[in-house]
Design brief:
Length: 418
């Protein structure tokens, strides 16, 4: 479990764009980060740094976490949940990514009390809340307060003071949340507010992790990655925080007409896609044009980079496709059962997929939740008797349009990319 620093008594050191010394602070930050800020693909640099610091694979998760924390600067930032079995490396990946951000960009916790969110003196305005385990989310009032600040951008909590006089406590955002969990699914109202990113549980990924550990042992790196010098990255975030963060997406209307409105969750996910595009353009603003009002203008390349990250997440959320891990699990059950073997166990599925039992169990639970498998065993504590459930739907092909389709769609809409 990561070490958590208690900074509830410290003042946030981040300067605002309106403070008198903001321009000088921005120039100081720019001198440190200008080489990095001019890169064409900053996310690729993030992946490179994290791999140098021991993170094996998981490029998509790395990029989405980095974008999520950077999105804290928007009016509506993105929240993410990292899912995976125990020992999958969720906390390690999150910690190494946070190393690239200054301390004022995020506030880490392992757990929180029911009303701590409203009573703490820590500012959450344009700051990412990090919760290292979903079980640390308090129930009832605490869960409601957290949802409010994520969805509404602030919390207004009516209570009474020590003299029983009515008062209203206000906690300003906007803020976002990144949490980790071993669960396949969170509480429904929490799940709908976060992008779910599942870490890879395959033997191939395990081999990559072992290879990185072996490489570190052979080379003899004794330096804690978290103690390495990341001044350039911290300066980049401080420079961004003191910049104009307004970004327009001139192809947003064309995109909305090309994404099939097949499910209600798309009302949430489409907005998240647009905010990720804005964050990507904000991050690469030195290579982006500005309009007459000084706003950053997103390019089609911003969309293409985000599409490659969230295509499967959005498609699965809209039930337009089945997660690959679920399809593989259903395929394993199909191979194991037959006329002489009407059902199979989780252990047998694990052997068929060459996974450890805990990873196989997570996959089976997900397939059961989606209805593609059924468990005939009714007694608790007995091995599952897995059989096939609903038939897997046929693949529908690409759910989000590619960049060529979006270019064609722009021709039918007023305005151009800019």
């Amino acid at each position: 479990m990561p070490k958590i620093d208690d900074d509830t008594r410290k003042k946030d050191s981040v300067k605002t764009k309106d403070s008198p010394d903001s321009e000088e602070a921005r120039r100081d930050a720019w001198r440190l980060c200008r080489s990095l800020a001019r890169r064409d693909d900053i996310l690729a640099e993030v992946v490179y740094v994290l791999r140098s610091n021991g993170v094996a694979g998981e490029a998509r998760a790395i990029k989405l976490v980095f974008l999520a924390v950077t999105s804290r600067l928007l009016k509506q930032p993105i929240s993410v949940v990292l899912k995976g079995p125990s020992s999958a490396g969720k906390s390690f990946l999150l910690q190494r990514t946070l190393d690239l951000f200054p301390r004022e960009a995020y506030y880490p916790l392992t757990a929180m009390s029911e009303k701590s969110l409203i009573y703490t003196k820590v500012s959450f305005e344009h700051r990412t809340l990090i919760l290292y385990e979903a079980a640390g989310i308090p129930a009832d009032t605490g869960r409601y307060l957290l949802r409010s600040i994520l969805s509404e951008g602030h919390v207004r909590y009516a209570t009474v003071d020590k003299h029983r006089n009515p008062i209203t406590l206000i906690k300003e955002g906007p803020t976002n949340l990144i949490i980790t969990t071993t669960a396949t699914r969170l509480y429904e109202d929490d799940e709908t507010r976060l992008f779910s990113v599942t870490l890879t549980d395959t033997p191939e990924q395990t081999q990559k992790v072992m290879a990185r550990l072996a490489e570190k042992a052979e080379i003899g790196h004794n330096t804690d990655p978290g103690m390495q010098n990341h001044d350039e990255w911290h300066a980049l975030q401080r420079w961004l925080s003191l910049s104009n963060v307004e970004v327009i997406v001139p192809f947003a209307m064309a995109l909305s007409q090309l994404v099939p409105p097949s499910s209600v969750p798309l009302r949430r996910d489409f907005g998240a896609i647009l905010r990720l595009i804005q964050t990507h353009a904000l991050l690469h603003q030195r290579n982006r044009e500005r309009d007459e009002e000084g706003r950053i203008v997103a390019k089609l390349q911003d969309y293409e980079d985000i599409r490659s990250l969230v295509e499967t997440i959005v498609s699965e959320g809209a039930q337009a496709s089945v997660p690959l891990a679920v399809a593989q699990t259903v395929g394993a059950v199909t191979s194991l059962i037959g006329s002489d073997k009407p059902s199979c166990t989780v252990t047998e599925v694990a052997c068929e997929l060459r996974l450890d039992k805990s990873a196989a169990l997570r996959r089976v639970k997900r397939a059961l939740d989606l209805g593609f498998l059924e468990n005939l065993e009714e007694l608790k504590g007995r091995p599952a008797r897995l059989v096939l459930g609903e038939r897997l739907p046929r693949a529908r092909g690409r759910f989000l349009p590619d960049i060529e389709q979006l270019q064609e769609g722009l021709q039918g809409c007023s305005g151009t990319e800019g």
